[in-house]
Each structure stands twice: as structure tokens, then as C-alpha cells.
Amino acid sequence: MSDDNTPAEDPVSEAEELLAAVEDPQTADEAEPEPLPEPVVDEATRAELARVYALLLARAGETQIELRLDATRWACEVLGDIHTAAPTITITGTNGKTSTARMIDSLITAHDLRVGRFTSPHLHSVTERISVDGSPVSARTFVRIYDEIAPYLEIVDGQLEAEGRAKLTYFEALTVLAFAVFADAPVDVVVTEVGMGGAWDSTNVADAQVCVFTKIGLDHQAFLGDTIEEIAATKAGILDRSVEDSPAPKPVAVTAVQDEAAQAVLDEEAARREVPLATEERDFRLLDRQRAVDGQLITVQGRRDVYSDLFLPLHGVHQAHNATVAIVAAEAFLGAEDKPLDQETVAEGLARVTSPGRAELVRTGPSVVVDGAHNPDAAHVLAETLTEAFDFDYVVMVLAMLADKDSDGVIEELHRSADVFVVSENLNSRALPVDDLAEVAREWVDEDSVIVASDLNAALMKAIDLANSVDAKSPGIVVTGSIYTVAEARLLLGRGEER
């Protein structure tokens, strides 16, 4: 979870506006439309989803963190221990969590198991956060399950208030809802993406059978600490057992390549808990990758086998490493289930992976790429991916960020990839004012290379005009800075997908 998801001042209005904005998806010029798992919801269901979303948003937002697990655990227990209904794979880290979770989901689904996936944030609809069988849960199911668990959430709220404590937060309630959906389905395995940190994150209420660490960097320092070591120690909390007499077996852990400081902490924390830790480059590795049309071919040395010439329909070396970690996580889980990975099935699973909003080409003529990079590490990865995967000889960088993010660090990573910046504001209440963002950008590029647009619609129109008028063989537009920026741009470009 990026903390780009705090509720607006008027939760009912935000819910209605978001739902009203998502109409029948319009296909980008370059691709066939993706099949939708169900028709666009009718008006009655739309209204019911708006009602439920407003109730969720009325709770303390995702940046109003409660450092606790017991509240989520109480709610899960009164609902029948729904957090223990299926074995769990938990993913934490700073960047790459959602993509890795989607890959693990696809790999295990390809091996004939039913997967429930809980990720954050969402692009267009809150239902995207809870997935069953590879697709967002239907609006009807989302509403039905919420209404079924609402009385129990109220009981827990009452207990908390009687103790002088805050009621369940938005993210805590949403986590409980996800586990309730998965228990109702039911699913064979749950894949959860940690919202923030690990030790006290609501998703940690489930004892993971496989604990996955993507690359750890600096982000959310106000909650996680100012050093890599502090952040890594908090994220290592997913190794803990939080269920008394847990039915889950002792976990195994898998980690991507980490900075030396983060790796030392993970090694120490895993050893202290006597949890086996498989580390990329040390215990498994990406052997080879080659650029391919619409993606890349990769070969991975896993813990159990070598998986050769796998097509991954995502761009960038970071996604190849995410896939490597996902394969080993799937090996660890399916090996424990005595269902080892099959080479052909691994290829099938990876070939089906999508990751909307991550170096995603959403339009051609001119080409528009959207990416939710909101911190310097993610911006660095985006810059590398643009160089490798896209043949742009002129880049218009459309940038809109939130005020609590490191805009200077992001622009430092991106300015060499951009010929011109079009800076703007997204619709989030915490958006960085466009004049402030422009001032930061002018610290890195000439003043003539910074164009100010009051809103994203105006920014996109200006960017398209620039790309169409410039004397370049392959101009491109890159929209980035926040997941909110990406979501708004996708809607404006006709790529809002209602599930």
C-alpha cells in the first residue's frame, strides 16, 4: 500500500464520484480489449457499492495508522477464525509488492489451486483490492459480504471504544472483509500484500506459510523509521506467529536482492526465529533475460529446478527479478503441498500476468506510458525501464505527486529521461500544489522545460500536442508520480476498467 489512499473529506461524495467516473472501458489504440469477468454493474449495484465504500471511507484513513494487530484479530475470530481458513503467502517490501503478488497468484492458479489475492492500493474501484480466481471480486459479492460482517465489525468497534481505543480503521476493516470474501468463496490459498511495514500491519493477522520480501527502501519513514535497518526490522515482523496454536506450519522466507544493510537485518531476524531464508543471488537467481515483443524472455534458476525461456508480458529488469522471486515463492508453497512446479505450467502462469499502472502502455499515436512511481527508488526503476523497453527519442514527462512524497528525489531520478516536464495536480486532497512541484522541477531542468497545467486533463492535452508537434521519430508521453495520477490518467484516456 502506498499511503496514497487516505479518504477524502467527504467520503460519500468521493465514492460516488469514483464510481460515476468509471464507465464502459474504451480500448487503447494499440490493443484488443481485455475480457471483463462480469458486465458493468447496474445502477442499483453501483449505488450499493457507493454506500459500502462510503462506510469504509468514513473510518480512519490509511495514513491514520494504529500500531496493533489485536483489533483485526478480534474481528476475524468473531467471524469464525476466517484468517486461518486457507494457507497464506504474505508479501512485504517497499516497491514491487503488487506485481509480485499478481505473479504468485497467476503461478499458483495455473497449478489448479483457487487463489484469493488482497493487494493495495486500487486504481479505479475498491473491489480491485480483493481478487478471486485472478479477477476482482464482483461488486455484488463485495456488498453482500460487507453487509454480512458489518454487525460483527460494530461489536469490535464497541469493544475498542469501551477500552478508550480507536475503532477499526479503513484498512483494518477492509482486511477483515478480504478474509471474509476468501472464506466465503472458498479459496485454497490466500496471497496478501502488506499494506505498510509488516509487524503490525493488519494482513499479518494471518500466519504466512511463505513470507516474501521484495526490495526494501526508504518510504513511510514517519511510521517505519528513518533507516533501512529500522524499516527492514519492521517488515521482518511478517515472520512472526500471531495466531495462538497456529495451524500454519513454520514459515519459510524468500527475499529479493537487498541492500547490504537490509539483508543483514533479514538474515538476523530470520535466524532468530529459526526461519529458513532463501535469498536471490545467494540461493536462486535470474540467469538470463532477453527483450521480446510486448515483454521479455527470462530463465530462472530456482531452488528446485531451472525454468527456461519464460515469456513475461511486462517490461523492465525489475519485473524479471520480481518474477524470479515469485517463482521461488511458488516453489516453496507448492513444494510444501507436494505439488512441485511444472515447467509448462510456470510458463503458462507467467504469460498471463498483468500489472496495470506499472510501465503500462495505454495509448499509441502518440504513445502514452503510465507508471505509479511515487518514491525515488521506483522512479529510478522507471527511468531504467524507459531506456530499455521503449524506443522514445523525445519524452514528455507528465508529473503529479502527493505533498508528503519526496518530489525532489523523484525528479532527480527522472530528469535525465525527460525532454520536457508537464507538471500538474491530481484530484487527491493531499496533492502537491502544481506551483510547488514546478519550483522543484526547475531545480533540475531549465525553466523553459517546465510547463504548468492546472489539472491532469489539461496536462495530457498539452503533452499530446507537444508529442505530435515535435520533430521526433518516436515521441512518448510518460505519466507518473502517484498511483492516483495514474488512475486519473487512465480514466481520462479511456482505460478505466470497472469490474
From TrEMBL:
SUPFAM superfamilies membership: MurD-like peptide ligases, catalytic domain, MurD-like peptide ligases, peptide-binding domain
Domain of life: Bacteria
Family annotation (InterPro entries): Folylpolyglutamate_synth (IPR001645), Mur-like_cat_sf (IPR036565), Mur_ligase_C (IPR004101), Mur_ligase_C_dom_sf (IPR036615), Mur_ligase_cen (IPR013221)
One Gene Ontology CC term in the entry: cytoplasm
Residue stretches making up the Mur ligase C-terminal domain: 357-471
GO terms for MF: ATP binding; dihydrofolate synthase activity; metal ion binding; tetrahydrofolylpolyglutamate synthase activity
Residue span of region Disordered: 1-38
E.C. no: 6.3.2.17
Reactions that this protein is recorded to catalyse: (6S)-5,6,7,8-tetrahydrofolyl-(gamma-L-Glu)(n) + L-glutamate + ATP = (6S)-5,6,7,8-tetrahydrofolyl-(gamma-L-Glu)(n+1) + ADP + phosphate + H(+)
Keywords: ATP-binding, Ligase, Magnesium, Metal-binding, Nucleotide-binding
Family to which the UniProt record says this protein belongs: Belongs to the folylpolyglutamate synthase family.
PANTHER family reported for this sequence: DIHYDROFOLATE SYNTHETASE-RELATED, FOLYLPOLYGLUTAMATE SYNTHASE-RELATED
Protein's name according to its UniProt entry: tetrahydrofolate synthase
Species lineage: Bacteria, Bacillati, Actinomycetota, Actinomycetes, Micrococcales
